[in-house]
Structures are given as structure tokens and as C-alpha cells.
Write a structure and sequence with these properties.
The chain is mainly alpha-helical and 208 residues long. It contains five helices and two strands, in the order H-H-H-H-E-E-H. The protein has a two-stranded antiparallel ribbon with strand order 1-2. Helix 1 runs antiparallel to helix 2 and helix 2 packs antiparallel against helix 3. The longest helix is centred in the C-terminal third of the chain and has 39 residues. The chain starts with a helix and ends in a 28-residue tail after the last helix. It is found in: Cell membrane. Keywords: Cell membrane, Membrane, Signal, Transmembrane, Transmembrane helix. One of its GO terms (cellular component) is plasma membrane.
Amino acid sequence: MGCCSGRCTLIFLCSIQLMVALERQVFDFLGYQWAPILANFFHIIIVILGFFGTIQYRPRYIVVYTVWTALWVAWNLFIVCFYLDVGGLTKESDLLTFDISAHHSWWREHGPGCVRREMTQPGVAIVDSQSYISVMGCLIEYQYIEVLHSATQILIALLGFVYACYVISAITEEEDSFDFVGGFDPFPLYHVNEKPSHLLLKPMYLST
């Protein structure tokens, strides 16, 4: 019963992780955040692997999921530090785009309540329809939205890590107990019912 409830909880957590990861992947694509896009891609694959490993009683798959979950927590802690400008990191850098482009988080211009206005400096000609973008009136700054996303990922990942360890332990114990059953039985699979013979051997005489 304990293993069953643990498996059901882990399956539920994997489902939540998939939905949250897909939602995050969409907004990272909109913001051209290439590093998070790659991380989300691997995360989705490993979560699916852990999902099917839990359903099909494959502890090796769950071990892979557990190891990745620890790495995923570390990655999201890095994202939190990046957007909060902790440890020498700065959200204004192009680190998440591999310095390929100057794009930033999609939430920077499309957050709740944000008003996006294109402005041009007076006396400066517009080249290739480029203009200065001003964002005002945001109810929540974009960095806090990103931090909230990462904090949610960390919370779900920690729960998944705990339940994955529990399910691995439970499955391993079940396999060990299954192997132990009949360990001292010389015929663990087949039992032959031997019935005592009531036939008496009688001497036979040949008549001539």
C-alpha cells in the first residue's frame, strides 16, 4: 500500500512538472532564452522517463530522474541568483542567450499591467524601424516573475526527489523479498504431489 501511494504521488508530481516545464518553455521561446530552452528540453525528456519508469516499475529510470532532479534544483537556483543579481551575476547580461542576441525575458515587456511604448529620440533617424522601447506600469517586475517560476520548479523538484528516493527503496525491497521467497525450496516453481502407492508386488508364477 505504501509503495502504491508513493508511486501515485510521484506520477502526480511528474505530471505537474511536465505542465509547468511546458509552460515555461513557451515563454522562454518567446524571449529567445536559449540556455533555458535547452535546459527545459532535457528536463521534459527526463521527467517523461521518470514518469514511465514509475508506472512500469523501472528503478533505473527513476534513478536517472532522481539525479537529474538534483541538477534541476541547482539550475533553478542559478536562475534565481541571475535575476536577483546575486554572486556577481546580473540580469542585464546576455548570458542566457549565449551572447547571440540582446533579448531578455519575455515578461520584461509583457508582464501583468505592463504598457509597452515605442519611443524615438528626437533628432535621431530611425534605422531599420528600430526604436527605443519603454515599459511602464508593471504590477510585478519581470525578474520576480522569473524567480517565482524557478521557486515553483525547485519546490516541485524537491518533492519529486524525496518521493523518487522512497519509490526506489520500496521497489528494491519488493524485489529482494520476491527473490527471497522460496530461496531454500529446492523446487520453488513446481511441486510434484507424490501419492503413496498402495499396490503390493505379488510374485508371478508362469504356468507350464
